[in-house]
Automatic annotation (TrEMBL):
InterPro entries: DYW_dom (IPR032867), E_motif (IPR046848), PPR_At4g14850-like_plant (IPR046960), PPR_rpt (IPR002885), TPR-like_helical_dom_sf (IPR011990). Its main location: mitochondrion. This is DYW domain-containing protein. It comes from the Eukaryota.
Amino acid sequence: MVLVGASNLSALMLCSRKLVRYVFYKRCLLRNLCTSSAEPETIATKIDAKIRALSTQGNIEEALSLLYTHCSLSLQTYASLFHACAQKKCLQHGMALHHYMLHKDPTIQNDLFLTNHILNMYCKCGHLSYARYMFEQLSRRNIVSWTVLISGYAQSGLIRECFSLFSGLLAHFRPNEFAFASLLSACEEHDIECGIQLHAAALKISLDANLYVANALIAMYSKHSGSAGGYDGAADDAWTMFKSMEYRNLVSWNSMIAGFQLRGLGDKATRLFTHMYCNGIGFDRATLLSVFSSLNQCGAFDDINVHLRKCFQLHCLTVKSGLITEIEVITALIKSYANLGGHISDCYRIFLDTSSELDIVSWTALISVFAERDPEQAFLLFCQLHHQNYLPDWYTFSIALKACAYFVTEQHAMAVHSQIIKKGFQEDTVLCNALIHAYARCGSLALSEQVFDEMGNRDLVSWNSMLKSYAIHGKAEDALELFHRMEICPDSATFVALLSACSHVGLVDEGVKLFNSMSDDHCIVPQLDHYSCMVDLYGRAGKIVEAEELIRKMPMKPDSVIWSSLLGSCRKHGETLLAKLAADKFKELEPNSSLGYVQMSNVYSSAGSFTEAGLIRKEMSNYKVRKEPGLSLVKIGKQVHEFGSGAQYHPHKGAILSQLEILIGKLKEMGYVPELSLALYDTEVEHKEDQLLHHSEKMALVFAIMNEGILPCGEKVIKIMKNIRICVDCHNFMKLASYLFQKEIVVRDSNRFHHFKYATCSCNDFW
C-alpha cells in the first residue's frame, strides 16, 4: 500500500476533475456529431415560428428583418407575412417581400394558396391595377382568387368592376358568402337596385340566410332606407331581414342598431339595445358608439332628462364592462353628456379621470364640447393640450377657432392663428375659412378680409364665409360686390348670406332680385332659410303685407324662425293683431322659448296696453318659461367684465351708475330722448327712465370709458358683446355716445354687429 501525502492528494483530485471534464466533453461532442444533421431543421422551424408570431402581433419590420438574415420560409409563414402586410396596409413591405420571395424561389408563385394571399395584400393596400394583372396571369384560379379581387374593388367603391368580375365568377364557380358580402358592401354606398338584384341571387342559392350575407343586407338596406330614387324604404327591409334571421351574432345586432341610428330613429335603436342587453347578449365598443349617437338624436325631440338618465346608465355599463378605457367610447360619452344638457363639470370630470388614456382625437372632441357652451374653458384646454406636447391637427385648430369666435376681441383668434402658421397649416383652406369666421365674429372684419385676400386656394365655403362676414357687419354693398367677383358657382348658403346682408341694411329691391334669380338663373330652389330672410327683409322695411303674403304662398310650412321674424317686424311697426297670430304660431313650434311671450308683451307695452302685457307675463310664469337675462361683456386690459341689468353684482356698481347719470344728462343736451314706450310697466316717467337707464350695454360702455386707458383695442374702439338683441333706446344711446366721445363703439348682439361712429350705425337703423 502506498501512502499518499496531502500534497499528492490535492494533485490527484485535480487530475481526476480534468479527466471527468474530458470525458464529458467527448460525450457531448459525440452527441453533437450524432445530431448535427437535424440541427438546421430545428433552427429553421424555430425561426419560422418566431416570424409567424411576430407577423401575427403586427411587428412586420422585425419579422422581415429576421427573414432577410436567415433562410427561406415555409408557405404558411410567407402567407402570414403577406396577411400582416394586408392588415396593416404596408404596401412597400409587401412588395419587398414579394420581390424577395421570387428571387429566392421563382417556382413558389405557382402555389395558389400563397398567390391568393399576395393578391389579397395588393387589394387591401389599394394597388388594384397590379392585383388585376396578377389575377389575369394566373393559370389556375379558385373561388378565393375571384372573391379576393371582388372584395378589393368593392372596398374602393368600383361597383361596375365588382359586378363584371362577379359575372365572370358565376361562369366558373358557385359564389360564396364572402363574395356576396363584399358586393353588398359596395352597394351600400351606391346603387340600391344592384343590391336588390344581389339579394335575389343570394335567395336563389339559399345564401340569404347566411350570417355574413344577412348582416351585409341589413347594413345595405339601412343606408338606403328613405333615400331618394326608386327604392321605397318605408317597409323597413333591414328590420324585416333582421327579424327573419334564425341565428344572430353581435355584428347582426350592431348593424341593426347602427341602421336605426343612421336613419335618425334613435329611440328604436336604444329600445333594441335595451332588449339585447336584457336578454343577456353581450355588446362591444361599436354597440356603445351607435347607442350614444342614438341618444343624441332622441334628446332633440323628447324629454331631455329621460335621455340624460339613459346616458348615465350607459356610463355605468361602460365602467362595468371595462370599455371605459376605450378612447372612442370616452369621447362619445363626453359628447352625449354635453349634447343632452349634462353639466359641463361632469364632462370635465370624465375627461380628468381618463386623460392618461386619451389621444389628440379625444382632446379635440372635448374641446368641441366646450367650444359653444364654455368657450373660455375650451381655449384653456387647447392651451393645456400644447403644454402636454400633443400635436394638434387641422381639425383641432378649427375647433379652437370655433371657440375663439365667442370672445369679445380677436386676441385669442390671433394667438391660434400664430400657432397655425408655426405648425405649417397656413395654406390649409379649411383653417383659413375658420379664421375668416372667427375674426368676423370677434368684430375684426379687416382681419377676415386679409385672410381671404391672402388665400391661395378658395373653395365655395371661403366665398360664403366672407359673404356672411360682410352680412353680420352690415356691409351689404361689399357683399354684393364680392358676389359679382365669385370665381365659383354659388349654392344655397351663398344666397342665405346675400339675402341676410340685404335684410340688415334694408336693400329690398336688391334682395327681391337675388331671391328671384335663385331659380331663374342658378337653378337653386329656395328653402326655409331663404324665405325666412325674405320675410325679415320685408318686415324690417315695414312691408308687412308683402311679408304676410310671402308666408301664405310658401311651398312649405313656415318654421319658428319665420314666425319670429314676422313677430319682430309687427312689434317694430305696431301691427298688434298680426303679431298675436305670429306669437301663437311661434309658441306652438317653440313652447319652451321665451321669445314669443316677451315680444308680445313688448307689443302690448308699446301700445300702452299694460294689462294685456301683464297677462302675457303671467301666462309665461304659469308655463314656467324663463326669459334669458340680458348680459353684456367688455374687455378691460386682460380681464373680461360681465354686466347684468343695473350692474347688480359688479364691485364698481356705485361709480358706474353715478357716471351713467352724468352721461345721460350730456346726451339729453345733444337730443337724446329715452324710448319710454319700451318700459314694461305702467309707472311714472321717472321710473320708466330708470328701467331703461340700467340696461347692461349702457353699464358696459360707461365702465369702458372709465378705463379707456387700458382698452385692448386701442383708444378709438370700444367692443361690447351682448347675448340678446340691442333695444331701440340703447341703439339711440350708443349712436350719440359715439359722437360725444369721438370713438367707434362696436356692439355685437345676438343677430349682428353694430358699428356706431359719428352718431350713425352701420345698420342704417334696419336692425
